[in-house]
């Protein structure tokens, strides 16, 4: 069985299209390939470090592969390739068969024994992701006996503080899935180590491995000149429940979540909060903010919000208090918990619709109290988003990226949400302003348009395309776009 790899040459370097998902292909440089065709039958392949089991090259017809025999029973593995601490993507073809009610387990790993492993546990009917020996994420999966199975595992830095790990499995007779089946976010890097393969022949049948490919995966944003990340504010998907929103985020490979009260309640029973936090972690998602959050003049009421944020690991709370005196309580809590607060703006007739008002509020407060800048409402209020951003002088912590078209009338102006970049917000220039300022927060895509909310996919896709085209480093030429695809985030807010 030969895996048909999509390999091309770019400036003399072999690259492989691995992990195809979303709106971009992750092109990466191949650093290792082995289809065992030149290895003598009965021998181990050169460069393999066998950790147990009688691995040897065998043949079926003209095809050669590395085989782990069906006996003895046990958990066996082998390391191959080179040590690395960088991001990498490993793919392999595996074949085995079930016997009566017994089925094998097999998988592929990165970064050595302490790294990550993607395992097909056929007896459990599960696809499991392990870090070391601990299962950190799993999904249902029904394995097809006897045929060849293709597996891909990718682990790479998604930001300075986060590694993203994801995997997929499919029958070699089928088309590769467009989306990853399992994802996980880790706040610590795996150790330096080699790729690996694993086999547990519980059915007493041999497990065969073929077409090993290892490719480098650059850190997200490496080569890019943008320090900020793109997100999605799920007021856009406001018809979704919490579980639907998590599924949506996992399916579309989003990373960061900013939770709103429509999806999580800071005052809900702790069992519910624990369940939802576990669901996020299982799907490789991490909450980075909550809001727009309800606040009160009652200090202990506000304390509950900060306790919730502390438990969830949230470092930023978005607020829009209906009384300026509330900031006396919020400032005390910001100092106590070291959790930032950002003031959100709506229309010009709301309390914080005029940026001058917001600047007057925050100038005497702790510097950890700043702004969540909604570009759509700033535009609708008649202000230039780029100018407003600069005038906040470093106090913008979060951005809701929205665009509006303004219909001017003799009475009140009428505002309509548009696709990102198609309105009057001059968002291409706004993104340039953020680049110049080295803004390092999240830009959360958002729309108030009910039709976009009903079918949000096209809105999100067009917004990502606009973002990529606006932030691409032109000096990198045709391949520059590959380096500037951002880490995506999803913001559950309103």
Task: Describe the 3D structure.
The structure is a single chain. This protein has helices at 242-251, 270-282, 299-312, 326-337, 355-362, 375-380, 385-391, 427-437, 450-454, 456-471, 480-483; strands at residues 7-10, 13-21, 24-34, 49-50, 56-60, 63-68, 76-79, 88-95, 105-110, 116-121, 126-131, 134-140, 148-157, 163-171, 182-186, 196-200, 207-216, 229-232, 256-259, 286-293, 316-319, 340-344, 369-374, 396-401, 404-407, 414-417, 442-445, 489-491. The protein is an alpha/beta fold and 494 residues long. The protein has two domains: 7-216, Sandwich (Jelly Rolls); 229-491, TIM Barrel (Alpha-Beta Barrel). The strands form four sheets. Strands 1, 2, 3, 5, 6, 8, 13, 14, 15 and 17 form a ten-stranded antiparallel beta sheet that branches. Strands 18-27-24-23-22-21-20-19-28 form a nine-stranded parallel beta sheet. Strands 4-7-16-9-10-11-12 form a seven-stranded antiparallel beta sheet, with no helix packed on it. Strand 11 (126-131) and strand 12 (134-140) form a beta hairpin.
């Amino acid at each position: 069985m030969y895996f048909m790899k999509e390999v091309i040459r770019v400036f003399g370097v072999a690259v492989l299209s691995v992990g195809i998902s979303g709106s971009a292909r992750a092109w990466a440089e191949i650093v290792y390939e082995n289809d065992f065709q030149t290895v003598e039958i009965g021998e181990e392949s050169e460069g393999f470090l066998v950790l147990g089991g009688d691995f040897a090259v065998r043949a079926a017809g003209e095809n050669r592969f590395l085989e782990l025999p069906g006996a003895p029973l046990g958990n066996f593995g082998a390391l191959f390739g080179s040590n690395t601490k960088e991001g990498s993507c490993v793919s392999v073809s595996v074949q085995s068969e079930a016997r009566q009610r017994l089925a094998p387990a097999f998988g592929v790993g990165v970064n050595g024994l302490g790294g990550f492993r993607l395992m097909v546990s056929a007896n459990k009917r599960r696809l499991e992701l392990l870090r070391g020996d601990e299962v950190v994420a799993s999904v249902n999966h029904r394995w097809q006996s006897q045929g060849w199975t293709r597996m891909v595992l990718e682990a790479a830095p998604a930001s300075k503080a986060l590694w993203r790990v994801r995997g997929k499995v499919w029958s070699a007779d089928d088309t590769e899935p467009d989306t990853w089946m399992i994802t996980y976010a880790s706040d610590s890097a795996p150790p330096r180590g080699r790729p690996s393969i694993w086999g547990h022949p519980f059915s007493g049948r041999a497990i065969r491995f073929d077409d090993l490919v290892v490719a480098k995966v650059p850190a997200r944003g490496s080569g890019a000149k943008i320090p900020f990340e793109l997100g999605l504010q799920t007021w856009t998907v406001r018809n979704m429940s919490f579980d639907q929103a998590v599924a949506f985020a996992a399916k579309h490979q989003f990373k960061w979540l900013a939770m709103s009260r429509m999806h999580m309640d800071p005052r809900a029973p702790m069992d519910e909060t624990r369940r939802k936090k576990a669901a996020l972690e299982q799907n490789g998602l991490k909450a980075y903010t909550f809001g727009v959050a309800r606040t009160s003049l009652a200090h202990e009421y506000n304390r509950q919000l900060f306790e919730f944020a502390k438990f969830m690991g949230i470092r930023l709370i978005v607020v829009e208090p209906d009384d300026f005196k509330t900031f006396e309580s919020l400032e005390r809590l910001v100092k106590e918990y070291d959790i930032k607060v950002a003031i959100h703006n709506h229309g010009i007739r709301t309390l914080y619709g005029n940026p001058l008002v917001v600047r007057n509020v925050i100038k005497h407060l702790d510097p950890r109290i700043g702004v969540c800048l909604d570009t759509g409402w700033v535009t609708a209020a008649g202000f230039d988003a780029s100018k407003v951003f600069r005038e906040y002088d470093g106090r913008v912590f979060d951005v809701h990226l929205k665009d509006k078209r303004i219909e001017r009338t003799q009475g009140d102006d009428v505002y309509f949400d548009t696709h990102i970049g198609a309105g009057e917000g001059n968002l291409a220039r706004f993104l340039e302003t953020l680049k110049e300022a080295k803004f390092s927060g999240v830009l959360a895509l958002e729309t108030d348009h009910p039709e976009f909310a009903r079918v949000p996919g096209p809105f999100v896709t067009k917004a990502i395309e606009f973002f990529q085209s606006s932030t691409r480093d032109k000096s990198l030429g045709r391949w520059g776009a590959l380096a500037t695809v951002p880490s995506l985030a999803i913001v559950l807010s309103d």
